[in-house]
Amino acid sequence: MNESFSLRNVRFNNRIFVASGTFGYGDEVAELVEFDGLGGIMTKSLSLKPRDGNPPPRITETASGMLNSIGLANIGVHKFIEEKIPALEHHACAIIANIAASTVEEYCGVLELLDPHKRVDGFEINVSCPNVKEGGLSFGTDPVKVALITKELRKRTRKPLIIKLTPNVTHISEFARAAEAEGADAVSVINTLIGMAVNIHTKEPKLSTITGGLSGPAIKPVALAKVFEVYKSVKIPVF
Amino acid sequence: MIQEHARIAAVKEIASNIFQLSFLSSSISRSALPGQFVNVKAEESAVPLLRRPFSIFSVDGETVSIIFNVVGLGTKLLSQKKAGEILDVLGPLGKGVFPFNDEKFDTALLVAGGLGVAAFPFLNSRLHASKKVISFLGARTSSFVVRKGLDNIHVATDDGSEGFHGTVVDMLKNFMNENTVLHPRIYSCGPMPMMRTLAKYSREKNVPCYAALECEMACGIGLCQGCPVEAAGEGRKYKLVCKDGPVFDVREILF
């Protein structure tokens, strides 16, 4: 079976993508994983300036899952361009740069810096990080803002534009429709679910930020239900 | 660093509720350095989900060992493994390792709190014969003391059931006051409060001190950014225990 497909002008080898945050910028895992077997890599979220991330503890294991509150720790877009893009040059799979920001202008700024680089095949827009105070989830829980960000970014790139949605809303399909209407090529479903864990001995939360994002096998049925809801409501592909 | 499905050579209880698990790996045994760790999948299932990080306890030929006490499901499953079974191991991990083959010290002081001792037999085996090695082991009680692979051992117990009655750091301080120690270097691993006290002492006495840190981890290779420790000085606010460590010069870290 031919698993390849296209979004705009980009041909992807197959439908296996590694989700943002699980694969770093790619170079760290080069010793362990055969990149060419992947359809693409969603990079760790990139912001305009480097971010330190949240104080520890940032992760804790839960039943069949993991709670994280990394807080978008990343090297920043400039360092990504200088150091990471050259290291990814010789790999065949697509590189989708994931962008996080706290203002519409910042989203646009990061995208404009990355857009001229051939090695960046497309963009995934993180409007749904639950772990930072400003931006992130506050954009992702307002369909008007999702529409605005999509519209502004669409003006600035001809490359595939994928909007990553949060499940922490009543109707995720509204957000998918808003992205589609403003020209998104696809949506990513889902970001993590807001969760919390408490140490019963100390009665303290297990994460420094109290709540975090839940991922792992625990949330797969939720994710599938959200994918199904979105699939029924838009014509663009669902990642 | 490789992901390997290694054959288990043996699992045995070496102290009260403390187990040694040995597996065969030509590549990990060949490339491992003292202070590095392996990240082990206790079971090929969603529970427990994450790998468990363990210091490399010893390397003998192609046999690599870890030790652990049973605290939760992951360590319980590992304690029940049998020789011949296959273990999913990622390693050796960590860029920060114990410096051991230089000329800047003559006496290695190995200071372990509890299961922090796990990091030291491997280091002990690699230290040059010309170095004097003294091991300081702290434990809650006598039955939790692990002596395997160490020499010249001084024991401190919280309950006084063996050796010095008190903390391992106080025992070390007494030893240093009462003895002349030639060009010492401290290697340490243990609970954070112990390491904090030790780091302070090493700064006061101007003795170089390297600490292997423990931390809840997920990936073990720097991808998830889940194991930060606050860095001292200018530059990055956090370092990652898994990738930048697990061993740090204590001056690099804000304890």
Give structural notes:
The complex is a heterodimer of chains A (239) and B (255). Chain A is of the alpha/beta class. Chain A has helices at residues 77-88, 104-114, 137-140, 143-156, 172-181, 220-233, and strands at residues 5-7, 10-12, 17-18, 40-42, 59-62, 65-68, 94-99, 122-126, 161-165, 186-189, 193-196, 198-199, 204-205, 211-215. Chain A has a single domain, classed as TIM Barrel, CATH 3.20.20. In chain A, strands 3-4-7-8-9-10 form a six-stranded parallel sheet. In chain A, helix 2 runs parallel beside helix 4 (143-156), helix 4 (143-156) packs parallel to helix 5 and helix 5 (172-181) packs across helix 6 (220-233). Chain B has 255 residues and is an alpha/beta fold. Chain B has two domains: 2-93, Translation factors (Elongation Factor Tu (Ef-tu), domain 3); 107-252, Nucleotide-binding domain of ferredoxin-NADP reductase (FNR) module (Rossmann fold, 3-Layer(aba) Sandwich), CATH 3.40.50. Helix content of chain B is 18%, strand content 35%. Chain B has helices at residues 26-31, 73-79, 120-126, 168-178, 192-205; strands at residues 2-15, 18-24, 37-41, 52-55, 58-60, 63-69, 86-93, 107-113, 132-139, 153-157, 164-165, 184-189, 209-212, 228-230, 238-240, 247-249. In chain B, the strands form three sheets. A seven-stranded antiparallel sheet of chain B has the order 4-3-7-1-2-6-5. Chain B has a seven-stranded mixed sheet with strand order 11-10-9-8-12-13-16, with helices on one face. Chain B has a two-stranded antiparallel sheet with strand order 14-15. The longest helix of chain B has 14 residues, at 192-205. The interface between A and B is medium-sized, with 28 and 26 residues.
